[in-house]
Amino acid sequence: GRGLKSHAYIHSVQFSHHVFLNLHTLKFYCLPDNYEIIDSSLEDITYVLKPTFTTQQITNLDKQAKLSRAYDGTTYLPGIVGLNNIKANDYANAVLQALSNVPPLRNYFLEEDNYKSIQRPPGDIMFLLVQRFGELMRKLWNPRNFKAHVSPHEMLQAVVLCSKKNFQITKQGDGVDFLSWFLNALHSALGGTKKKKKSE
Q1: Where is the USP domain (predicted)?
Q2: For residues 145-172, average pLDDT
Q3: Which of 63, 79, 82, 102 is least surrounded, with the fewest CB atoms within 10 Å of its CB?
Q4: Is the pTM higher than 0.90?
């Protein structure tokens, strides 16, 4: 919020930090004056937070391998960037990295329109996996990243929640078990059918 008692307002007065970004609307505001800032130079920030891809860009991903430059001057190849290791989540990072380079899966999740209108039952938390995986995929393939690595924190929080803590950030897990669970969970959350004796 931006009201007089909000954390943002108090912070702006105490520390003379005046530009704030609403993470839901992606609009910038100047506090404490409370007016919207419209400046095209801030578009880089909103694109890093919510990268988007056209169908043409997705089609050309495997045809045009082009290096991108990060904010610190290092170069990286979109899709081939590091995932931060928060504690003991390297097993999950390896699986997520591998899946991000499977073209049909990558292409599906890069275009949010493919799944954003899927209807899920009220209170269904499993669709959070789909949303977070799509966000992570778009960040991994973003040609305008500020750094040559990406944080999988939101994705891993969804994994911990949706797996009922079977897969955690703080203790090592088995990559094969995680891969099997994750693919089945995505399949189910996207409206796939369940088989009694074997998984899809």
Answers
A1: 81-200
A2: 93
A3: 63
A4: no
